[in-house]
Automatic annotation (TrEMBL), chain A:
Its cofactor is FAD. Keywords: FAD, Flavoprotein, Oxidoreductase. Belongs to the acyl-CoA dehydrogenase family. It comes from the Bacteria. InterPro entries: Acyl-CoA_Oxase/DH_mid-dom, Acyl-CoA_Oxase/DH_mid-dom_sf, AcylCo_DH-like_C, AcylCo_DH/oxidase_C, AcylCoA_DH/ox_N, AcylCoA_DH/ox_N_sf, AcylCoA_DH/oxidase_NM_dom_sf, Mycobact_Acyl-CoA_DH. This is Acyl-CoA dehydrogenase family protein. Residues 111-205 form the Acyl-CoA oxidase/dehydrogenase middle domain. Residues 217-374 form the Acyl-CoA dehydrogenase/oxidase C-terminal domain. Residues 27-107 form the Acyl-CoA dehydrogenase/oxidase N-terminal domain. SUPFAM superfamilies: Acyl-CoA dehydrogenase C-terminal domain-like, Acyl-CoA dehydrogenase NM domain-like.
Automatic annotation (TrEMBL), chain B:
SUPFAM superfamilies: Acyl-CoA dehydrogenase C-terminal domain-like, Acyl-CoA dehydrogenase NM domain-like. InterPro entries: AcylCo_DH-like_C, AcylCo_DH/oxidase_C, AcylCoA_DH/ox_N, AcylCoA_DH/ox_N_sf, AcylCoA_DH/oxidase_NM_dom_sf. Residues 7-108 form the Acyl-CoA dehydrogenase/oxidase N-terminal domain. It holds the Pfam family Acyl-CoA_dh_N. The keyword Flavoprotein applies. Residues 211-349 form the Acyl-CoA dehydrogenase/oxidase C-terminal domain. Belongs to the acyl-CoA dehydrogenase family. Its cofactor is FAD. Keywords: FAD, Flavoprotein, Oxidoreductase. This is Acyl-CoA/acyl-ACP dehydrogenase.
């Protein structure tokens, strides 16, 4: 058992041996991974020490105080939040050794080849086929809404390997090399004007069986690990008052008295209160995690933030009056990150529309809260026992 | 740092209060009582105050109290809200007690802490922490005037009355004429207080005492509102799992599931806001903003939760025999008590520098 004091000791040892001021960034990150201080709850040899998950904050605080470089986690959110825990749980020893270190350091960025044009919230309806030829799988199909595919070196991929069984049963999970022939990433321009996500066409892509994750036909169960981790992504971070999207609006209100109206004032105060209360709920969730008693609140955080971001950014556009009629830049770009703070109110308003769609629509998440938190009856299922190939589409 | 969790001691306190209320304050008991001439449950009050020592939570041990804090009081209020318990806890153990703490009147504080004396601040229940309040006339050393909307005055032994000389006076109930008003919230009834040459003992300055008392009241009321909302959500979910229409549990219809999930989210948020206010009152840090945030958020949530409870219980929810209306009435009255959400939002505008146009 590794306790907080032990982690502080090991972190200081890492800092002594690799002084941040004189150590190359990547070298420092690799050393940190090898010292088991990347994600302390992972096993030894895989970037962790098998310590309790909540003790990561102890390490992070020490490193931050020492000015150590971080692994720029936002650039590789899918890798860190989704691919890694899935590889850890279902990967072979060889897969874990091969993938986890460059994933954590950010040397290799990941994307997720899950959604398809005909399979969004009903993800298990996917139609991308993987057909086995000896030790290789040949993959054909189309994926969509793939954030960051243009920067990704690897992808987690689910594909149909058996169309003759019900849709959840015939799926297999793979690790796909984005540089392989047959992987074609095409930007998908969004309502903001930029292309943060992509369509990905897979044409005779050959994936060796050694890059299958989990058993053949067990892909849906493996994907649940990925998806559960997607929704647990919040927590750990602390936000100051006005730290979210309400911040720029409040700032504008203070600095630009000529923009103020009574109607906007009423709406601003209401949203300010809701933003503060959501912040407190997130902080309460964080305190529960640190205390080792995670609550079900996390299931609702994404819902709350999606609605708030949309309402606040909508108000912000109106507050700006004449300027609200303008937009900073419609140039088609392919960004590495979603930039909520660097761009203007119009961008925030448009981009926030995605908050209630990405990672599960608010409608589907409300079902999940109702069924898993409140225990209400599940939605009726008419496709449960029908072979995928016999489903209407 | 704000501590938004419940300690083990607080959870133990909750369990003890809930056990007592389960045994002695079932909805049918409350309903029967509000139909009588004596809506307050003084036997329950005695058990809470005398038996468990909860009336003195905010009073230091040296003055006969428990020396606890607003955090523990908040937990008690959550449970009392969940039971719409007709006891003068908020009015005596919080509001009157806070006023006396500001005045430093040890003798009366000790009596309130023991629970054997019930106190009521003679300021209208609707009054916000920063709002003006009515004072009575002090003439030739005795008090004259009428005050309305005084919560729980019907069972108070001592009334704390603001007078026009700026003082706060302790008046024994015998010296005043207390007349019940027909109240919207049957479980926290209001009364008028008439003073016709009533003697009073000056306990301190009214202004700081009333401000302090109303601020604590507004902050801790959020915990009561949390209890009310939590009951409404829990009971409605339970009922919708049982109630069948069209050959399936009503709770399986997505239109209703989404409404309940939404209500759950609001309740989760309210818990964080109420905890933050209780913690801020206990520590004295950031109290003004935390109280205003909690009260601006709490009232609409509690009202929404109880309105949903009535609607989703449908026909039975509209009946007198089902307790849903007791909670709806408490929630709606609470939305006015100690300042409406709108008044608290306006207070915030000044506190966080978001000025009016």
């Amino acid at each position: 058992m590794t306790d907080a004091d032990e982690l502080v000791r090991r972190t200081r040892e890492l800092l002594d041996q690799n002084p941040p001021a004189s150590t190359d960034r990547l070298e420092f990150l690799r050393a940190r991974f090898d010292a088991g201080l990347a994600w302390v709850h992972y096993p030894e040899g895989l970037g962790g020490l098998g310590a309790p998950r909540h003790l990561q904050v102890v390490v992070d605080a020490e490193l931050e105080a020492a000015g150590a470089p971080d692994n720029d986690a936002r650039r590789n959110g899918i890798g860190l939040g989704m691919a890694a825990p899935t590889i850890l749980k279902y990967g072979t020893e060889e897969q874990k050794q091969r993938f986890l270190r460059p994933l954590w350091t950010g040397e290799e960025v990941w994307c997720q080849l899950f959604s398809e044009p005909g399979a969004g919230s009903d993800l298990a309806a996917l139609g991308t086929r993987a057909v086995r030829e000896g030790d290789t799988w040949v993959v054909n199909g189309q994926k969509v809404w793939t954030s960051g595919a243009h920067n990704a070196r690897w992808a987690i991929l689910i594909a149909r390997t058996d169309p003759a069984v019900p849709k959840h049963a015939g799926i297999t999970y793979f690790l796909c090399d984005m540089t392989d022939p047959g992987v074609d990433v095409r930007p998908l321009r969004q309502i903001t004007g930029e292309a943060e996500f992509n369509e990905v066409f897979l044409t005779d892509v050959r994936i060796p069986d050694s890059r299958r994750l989990g058993e053949i036909g067990d892909g849906w169960r493996v994907a649940q690990t990925t998806l559960n981790n997607e929704r647990v992504a919040i927590g750990g971070m602390r936000l100051p008052r006005e730290g979210g999207m309400i911040g720029p609006v409040a700032k504008t209100w203070r600095e630009r008295p000529e923009l103020r109206t009574h109607d906007l004032h009423q709406r601003l105060l209401k949203l300010w209160v809701e933003a503060e209360v959501s912040r407190l709920t997130a902080e309460r969730l964080r305190q529960q995690l640190v205390a080792g008693q995670p609550g079900p609140e996390g299931a609702g955080m994404k819902l709350a933030f999606a609605r708030l971001n949309q309402e606040i950014s909508g108000l912000e556009v109106e507050l700006r009056g004449e300027e609200g009629l303008l937009y900073d830049d419609w140039t088609m770009r392919r960004p590495e990150l979603v930039d909520f703070t660097g761009r203007d109110a119009g961008y925030r308003y448009l981009r926030a529309k995605g908050n209630s769609i990405e990672g599960g629509t608010s409608e589907v998440l409300l079902n999940i809260v109702a069924e898993r938190v409140l225990g209400l009856p599940a939605e009726p299922r008419t496709d449960k026992d029908v072979a995928w190939k016999d489903l209407a589409r | 740092m704000t501590d938004l969790l419940y300690s083990e001691e607080e959870e133990a306190l909750r369990a003890a209060v809930r056990d007592l209320l389960t045994d002695h304050c079932a909805p049918a008991d409350v309903l029967g009582r509000v139909e009588s001439d004596t809506p307050h449950d003084l036997a329950l009050w005695k058990q809470l105050a005398d038996g468990m020592g909860l009336a003195g939570l905010l009073v230091p041990e040296a003055q006969g109290g428990q020396g606890a804090s607003h955090r523990e009081v908040a937990v008690v209020l959550e449970e009392l809200g969940r039971a719409v318990a007709p006891v003068p806890y908020l009015t005596s153990a919080v509001v009157a007690t806070e006023a006396l703490l500001a005045c430093g009147d040890e003798e009366l504080l000790g009596r309130l802490a023991s629970g054997r004396t019930i106190g009521a601040l003679a300021v209208g229940l609707h009054t916000a922490p920063s709002a003006a309040f009515t004072a009575v006339r002090l003439e030739s050393g005795v008090l004259h005037g009428e005050l309305t909307g005084i919560a729980d005055a019907a069972v108070a032994d001592v009334l704390l009355v603001p007078a026009d000389d700026g003082g706060l006076y302790a008046v024994t109930a015998d010296a005043a004429t207390v007349t019940p008003q027909v109240s919207f919230d049957l479980t926290r009834p209001l009364a008028t207080v008439r003073l016709e040459g009533a003697p009073g003992r000056r306990v301190g300055d009214a202004e700081p005492a009333v401000r302090r008392a109303l601020r604590a009241a507004a902050g801790l009321l959020a915990s009561e509102q949390l209890g009310v909302a939590d009951w409404a959500l829990t009971e409605t979910v339970r009922y919708l799992k049982e109630r069948k229409q069209f050959n399936r549990p009503v709770g399986g219809f997505q239109a209703l599931k989404h409404r309940l999930a939404q209500l759950w989210l609001e309740t989760v948020n309210l818990r964080a806001a109420a905890r933050a206010a209780a913690d801020a009152l206990a520590s004295g840090e950031d109290a003004e903003i935390s109280v205003a945030v909690a009260q601006a958020y709490a009232a609409p949530v509690a009202v929404h939760a109880t309105e949903e409870a009535v609607q989703l219980h449908a026909g039975i929810g509209m009946t007198w025999e089902h307790p849903a209306h007791l909670y709806l009435k408490r929630a709606k009255a609470d939305s006015i008590a100690y300042g409406t959400a709108g008044v608290h939002r306006e207070a915030l505008a000044g506190l966080v520098d978001l000025q009016t146009p």
